[in-house]
Predict the 3D structure of the following.
Amino acid sequence: MKQPGLDGRQRDQNPPKAGEIRQKRGDTALSYSSGTASLNLAVAGGPRQSILRPVEIEKQTLVDALMKRALFGDHRLFDIALGAQQGMDGAVLVLSQERGGKITLNEQGSICVSVPIERSNRMMPELVYEVVQGQFSGALDYASWVLDHIDPTQRLMQVAIAASLTGADHMAWRTQRESQANPNSMSVGMRTNEQTSVHISKTRPALRLNAAHIVEDLVVPLRRQWR
């Protein structure tokens, strides 16, 4: 049920459930395929409401801030050596790089970050646990920053978070130590079961206060799907 807020915007009294992070047409999409193995993180806030007006989401100042953070933030999501594109896909702001990452943001403040999984120079078909964990940490930090940037008064008090890996069915999980101990050999088995996204719900402050635990709660269940 939606009711008008103090600012006249329509608001849903019910916060989003974890499963509701699967976005419909016009919203952010959880997965993005760039032809390479990618990790995907989506964050949707609640109570569901309009956070950005249509004119606000198209402002160049917002685009510049998001792009700057993706290129030069503490956790760089975009490769500075690659060109970047920006534009609107319906009501969704899209920032992307060819053969690189993709970031989407909609008017409800839902964010999706997709980045290629970092590979070693050996180019082994491996998913190094510490590397994947670090990339998810960077994606979560970016999503948290975006929410603080567009919603500094924290009208979105709760968040539903979803994580997935795409294009990685042929890869195998190893720790950093295992990768270094056997740099040129490993056993790889094709996954036969369909991979599913991992969903969790948290309060908004947990994005900062419990970021490490959130990442673990996403990565560990993802890794189990390869066993």
User: Anything to note?
Assistant: Residues 1-11, 18-34 have pLDDT under 50 and may be disordered. The first strand starts at residue 2 and ends at 4. Helices lie at 54-57, 60-72, 129-150, 176-181, 206-209, 211-224. Residues 129-150 form the longest helix (22 residues).
